[in-house]
Amino acid sequence: MRWHATLHTLVTGLGSTRFTDFGPGRSLAGLARRAFPDVPAEPVVGLRLAVV
User: Fold this and answer.
1) CA-to-CA distance for 16 and 3, rounded, in angstroms?
2) Is-above-0.85 flag for pTM?
3) Distance CA 12, CA 47 (A)
4) Does some domain include residue 17?
5) Over the stretch 1-48, which tens digit does the pLDDT of each residue have?
6) 35 lies in which domain range?
């Protein structure tokens, strides 16, 4: 996976100003923080989705 290239495109090419990690755990937010420390990256913890 080209993780760093994807994040770089999101920040520099598309102007993303924040990352939100909806995956299990906090791994993706941590990777985003390390790659772009000036862009806030937060995990969503305890989210439960309801299927209706």
Assistant:
1) 15
2) no
3) 29
4) yes
5) 688 899 999 999 999 999 998 877 788 888 899 999 999 999 887 766
6) 3-40
Residue 37 φ then ψ, to 5°: -65, -20
Domain presence at residue 19? yes
The two tokens of residue 7 are 């994040």
Q: 48 lies in a domain?
A: no
Number of domains in the chain: 1
> Which residues does 20 contact at the CB level (< 8 Å), separation at least 6?
29, 41, 42, 43, 44
Asked whether residue 51 is domain-assigned, the answer is: no
Q: Which residues contact 11 (CB under 8 A, 6 or more apart)?
A: 36, 39
